[in-house]
Amino acid sequence: MATTASETVPATEQGWLDRNRANWDDRVAVHAASDFYDLAGFRAGASTLRPFEPAELGDVAGRSLLHLQCHMGQDTLSWARRGAKVTGLDFSVPAVEVGTRLAADIGLADRARFVVADVHDAVRALAGERFDVVYTGLGALGWLPDLTRWARVASSLLAERGVLYLVEFHPFTDMLDEEGRTVERDYFTTSGQAWDEPYTYTDGPPLTRTVSIQWDHTLGEVITALGTVGLRVEFLHEHDATAFERFSVLERGEDGEYRFPAGHPRVPLMYSLRASRP
C-alpha cells in the first residue's frame, strides 16, 4: 500500500536510504534465483541490453564505462561483452557480490569490477576517476529524490568528450490503469511515496523487508536536471516497447520486449537519451 511522503517518508536522507538499501539487499537472493533474471541464461551468453542500446551508444570496445545503480550487474557485464572496460556501482553489498561472481563465471573479471557505494557518493568511492561513458539503466531514477544532485554526480564522473547514456521506463506509463487506456494518476505527483509490498517484481518467495521509498520524475525534470549541470542532450528517443508486462494487454514479441497489440492506442513505454558536455 502506498502512502504520501508527508506521512511516512523519513525526514532524514539516511532514513529513506537505509530503508531502500535493506529492501534491495533482501531482493538480491530472490532475483538471483528468479526466472526473470535468468542468471543461467546470462552465464550461457545472453545479453540483457535492449537492441536499440548498442545502436544508440555506438561502439564501446576499449572504452571505460561506469554503470550507476547496477544491481547484480548483468547490464554492466553485457557492455563488457561488447568490449568495454566496465565498473558497476551499487549500494547493495549482496548485489555487488553477485555481480563480482558473474564476472568471474563468464571470464570477464579482467574487464569488470564492482564497487559498493551509494550513487551520491560515487565520486569519492571511485577516487575521482572519470569515464568515457556513464550509463544508467531501467528502473534507477525512481529511487532518487533529487535528480539535479544525481545529474551533478554523473556529470562529474565523465571524462573529456565522455557521454551520459540513460535508458528508463517512461513516466507517462505511471498515469495509466492496468489496461493502459485510462488516466488514473497525476503525472505531476513527484513527492516520495512509501510502498509496503510483500513481493518484488520477479517470481519468487516473499520478502522480509518490504518497505521502500520511491519518487516519480517527469520527463521534463530529467532533461532540466541535465541542463542545469551543463550537459547537452544529443537525443531523446521514446520507445513503444518495454521490458516486462507493464499492462495486462501487452504482448511479448520475438525480441522479448512487450508492446500493445495491433489496434490498441500506443503510449511511450521507455525512453533513452544521450547527453554530453558542449
Automatic annotation (TrEMBL):
It comes from Streptantibioticus silvisoli. The lineage of its organism: Bacteria, Bacillati, Actinomycetota, Actinomycetes, Kitasatosporales. The keyword Methyltransferase applies. Residues 66-162 form the Methyltransferase domain. GO terms for molecular function: methyltransferase activity. Its EC number is 2.1.-.-. One of its GO terms (biological process) is methylation. It holds the Pfam family Methyltransf_25. Keywords: Methyltransferase, Transferase. This is Class I SAM-dependent methyltransferase.
